[in-house]
Amino acid sequence: MSDLQDAVSRRRTFAIIAHPDAGKTTLTEKLLLFGGAIQLAGAVKARGEQRRARSDWMKVERERGISVTASVMNFDYDDRTFNLVDTPGHEDFSEDTYRTLTAVDSAVMVIDAAKGIETQTRKLFEVCRLRDVPIITFVNKMDREARDPFELISEIEETLAIDVTPASWPIGSGRDFLGCYDLLRDQLILMDKRQGDVASQGVKCEGLDDPKLDELLPAHAVATLREEVEMARGLCPEFDLESYRAGHLTPVFFGSAINNFGVQELLKGLGELAPPPRPQPADGRMVEPDEPKVTGFVFKVQANMDPNHRDRIAFFRLCSGHFRRGVKLKHMRSGKLLAVNNAVLFLARDRELAEDAWPGDIIGIPNHGSLRIGDTLTEGEDLRFTGVPSFAPELLQRVRLDDPMRVKHLRKALEHFAEEGASQVFKPMLGSDWLVGVVGQLQFEVLAARIEAEYGIAARFETASVDAARWIECEDPVEMKRFVDSNRANLAEDHDGALVFLSRNTWHMNRTQEDFPKVQFLKTREQN
Ligand code: G4P
């Protein structure tokens, strides 16, 4: 096996999806703890606090107690290298989350054992399904009053229409939660609350009839376990790797992240079951991860991480090849060559210069605005990765300035944020007021705060008489011209110069669609 193939086979790039409060932060922290990437639980939060304290615009985030920015954490466990891509859980930031999911090969879905599938879990799951991202489920908070495991399993099965199979089976719940029986390895893993951060070793059993179980567990607990496992095995499909990797079946682990319980099993499960970097779709062909030449795409841009420098970090997912510091990559959108000398790898506690990186890894490339979401970089070949989407904004507002002299500055700020993917900006064909579109209301507040903090401009967002935005495409140039000529007052350009139709209400949208049946009104657009 070549070094490249070896590195590919050991990489696991994944994201955690969860409804807020299900325990994503706690689980992330524990994964890093077991991965040896951090010494103390609480470090993720502490790091977050420091970062927040440095950055003014994040005040909004702090006040609302939500995590706005996604980041990447690289750690090793059991001879595997994991890249955990964090996704913001708050629903107002789902667009960023959607794009983040284009950069991972699998996902862990965290569910609160008392609440089951919640709205945001379902939305994020649907995005994973669109791309056939395989999902491992972690039912968290088993140390609290939890719902019956059978009930949870059928809820997942029914609401998400996916096959479900338990990978472990909980013994009791709440105060009586004793541990889990590992169904894939036939072993018992008991919970040791006193051991704190040290994980207990599992006790190997020869199946459920092993008398060791009777020695280790109270009689009623063993009886229930035997009965429930027999039922579960009868009712649920057997675990099937292919079906999981195709996104049709999810194995379920039970645990309690706060007590470190079930976390190691989950990590082992990810290492053994989750797929290594998958082939990525580009125009014309699929790019295999063990191709020798470097290719990859930008899925996220974060601007102004340090307000004193207008620097930006482009988060670049490597799709193939062995990246070495200094490698010259072709930026497909501009055709220019880029010598990548100062890219960083995101370790859990720190960043370090990326000397080497392999497919599945995510590196941060500092730049001054040349790299945008959706951009492809290659070691020479002309290809573009597809599938990094822009979503039509669900809310549109007009932006107003207190000081009209600063209009140019405001435009620059809005363009920066649009390039970062934080919002979309539309320049109407007629009139001078720009419109800003976002997916969730909270983003307007974040934007206003950032415009003030990072550009020193006081701006307000006001209601606009616009209800929806749709990208326009039409294969027939004559029809396109007829459409543009008769809708000039409702047309705008986005920051890339793509044509957008702004409707006043549903009736207006439907009517225009009926009048121009050859014109397509698109809710999503691929970047570039
Ligand atoms: P999130 O990132 O998905 O929003 O969730 P987070 O990890 O912040 O967890 C939400 C709350 O649930 C936190 O409590 C956390 O301590 C608690 N929690 C997480 N995992 C478990 C678990 O396995 N068992 C129990 N009992 N609780 C769990 P909080 O009171 O909101 O915050 P904090 O004061 O503990 O930080």
TrEMBL record:
Keywords, comma-separated and alphabetical: Cytoplasm, GTP-binding, Nucleotide-binding, Protein biosynthesis
GO cellular component: cytosol
Top-level taxon of the source organism: Bacteria
Localization per Swiss-Prot or TrEMBL: Cytoplasm
Any single biological process term in GO: regulation of translational termination
GO terms of molecular function: GTP binding; GTPase activity; guanosine tetraphosphate binding; translation release factor activity, codon nonspecific; translation release factor activity, codon specific
Annotated Gene3D superfamilies: P-loop containing nucleotide triphosphate hydrolases, Peptide chain release factor 3, domain III, Translation factors
Binding-site positions, GTP: 86-90, 140-143
Any single Pfam family the record assigns to this protein: EF-G_D2
Residue ranges of domain Tr-type G in the record: 9-278
Function text: Increases the formation of ribosomal termination complexes and stimulates activities of RF-1 and RF-2. It binds guanine nucleotides and has strong preference for UGA stop codons. It may interact directly with the ribosome. The stimulation of RF-1 and RF-2 is significantly reduced by GTP and GDP, but not by GMP.
The family this protein is said to belong to: Belongs to the TRAFAC class translation factor GTPase superfamily. Classic translation factor GTPase family. PrfC subfamily.
UniProt name for this protein: Peptide chain release factor 3
Organism of provenance: Skermanella stibiiresistens SB22
